[in-house]
Amino acid sequence: MSKEYVFTSDRLGFRTWEASDVIKMFEISSDPKVMQHFPSTQSKEYTANFIKKMQDQFNKNGFCYFAVEILETGHFIGFIGCCEQTYEIDFNPSVDIGWRLHKNFWGKGYATEGAKACLEYMFNVLKLKKIVSVATKENTPSIGVMKKIGMHKIKEFTHPLLRDFPEYQNCVLYELKS
């Protein structure tokens, strides 16, 4: 593929967002199965705003939740990357690593491979000292990825942005230092 990637892993290319990604990311974020650990699916408008926020964050910091493609085919599969978090809690401001992939690409090791590549980029290129990750306590697939990439559980907490959603507010914080 002739796309320009910020960095790559063995199978994945990490790039900034394009306008054409809104429809593809909306397909993922509007899927109830993909969003089962979140209070709701996301609208097309929300997805467009999310992508704009990621573009702005990349322009400001050199990182974001990157659009991710399979190198061999150029097929868009979702996002993996890091994002500034500033909501009110004792561990913020922080840089959070996260992922959201189309369900057809679950169970293939892409989240783990991509997260490891992101950590390498964040620690070795951008020289960050610490990355965190947050998930609901029930999100065992994401917690499994956190463990596989070497993160350590710091604590359980009540997420301040999820207080209106009791079934989602109990979360875990994982951390990795460079």
From TrEMBL:
InterPro entries cross-referenced by the UniProt entry: Acyl_CoA_acyltransferase, GNAT_dom, N-acetyltransferase
Pfam families for the chain: Acetyltransf_3 (PF13302)
Listed SUPFAM superfamilies: Acyl-CoA N-acyltransferases (Nat)
PROSITE patterns attached to this UniProt entry: GNAT (PS51186)
Coiled coil: none
Transmembrane segments: none
Domain N-acetyltransferase: 12-172
Entry-linked Gene3D superfamilies: 3.40.630.30
Protein name: GNAT family N-acetyltransferase
